[in-house]
Amino acid sequence: FFIMLLIIFLLELTVVILFFVYTDKIDKYAQQDLKKGLHLYGTDGNIGLTNAWSIIQTDFRCCGVSNYTDWFEVYNTTRVPDSCCLEFSENCGLHSPGTWWKAPCYETVKIWLQENLLAVGIFGLCTAMVQV
After folding, report:
1. What is the mean pLDDT of residues 28-34?
2. DSSP character string of 74-98
3. Alpha-carbon distance 77 to 79, whole Å?
4. Most CB atoms within 10 A, among 15, 46, 62, 128?
5. Which CDD domains does the record match to this protein (predicted)?
6. What topology does CATH give the domain 29-131?
């Protein structure tokens, strides 16, 4: 049992080290996957993803992965979801870019995670200590 726990602990440690070594590549792939995921927004069977994007864009006051133009590819026109609007109203995403959040969601959430890294680190250490 101890050997199994030790192997799991070493694998977790390896994953953490690899995460910090390959942060740039992880960033690039994450952004690509998120942009692909935008195309599922509002589609049948993807209510969770749709709600997640709406909540993130509303709470973090951001729009799109890199910027609001990411949504132009999804809709094939110059519009964004209503959750990107500075002041929410029905079909506000059809108005001009001056009424939309300009901040990119990926960077905004990434900065928030970095600011709260201490809490994430403490959680990870507590998990590791329980295993030991």
Report:
1. 95
2. HHTSS---GGGBSS--TTGGGS-GG
3. 6
4. 62
5. NET-5_like_LEL (cd03165)
6. Cd81 Antigen, Extracellular Domain; Chain: A (1.10.1450)
Token digits of residue 5: 């726990």
Over residues 59-101, the pLDDT tens digits come to 999 999 999 999 999 999 999 999 999 998 888 999 888 999 9
Q: Is the pLDDT of residue 103 over 90?
A: yes
Name residue, tokens 């590549």.
25
Q: How far apart are CA 21 and CA 72, in angstroms?
A: 34
Distance, in Å, from the CA atom of 54 to the CA atom of 48, rounded to the nearest integer, reads: 10
pLDDT reading at 132 higher than 70: no
Predicted local distance difference test score (pLDDT) of residue 12:
85
Domain boundaries, the chain: 29-131
- Segment 52-60 mean pLDDT: 96
Are 82 and 90 within 8 A, CB to CB?
yes
Q: Which residues contact 105 (CB under 8 A, 6 or more apart)?
A: 56, 57, 60, 62, 63, 64, 65
Spatial contact of 36 and 53, defined as CB atoms under 8 Å apart? no
Contact by Cβ (8 Å): 57, 83? yes
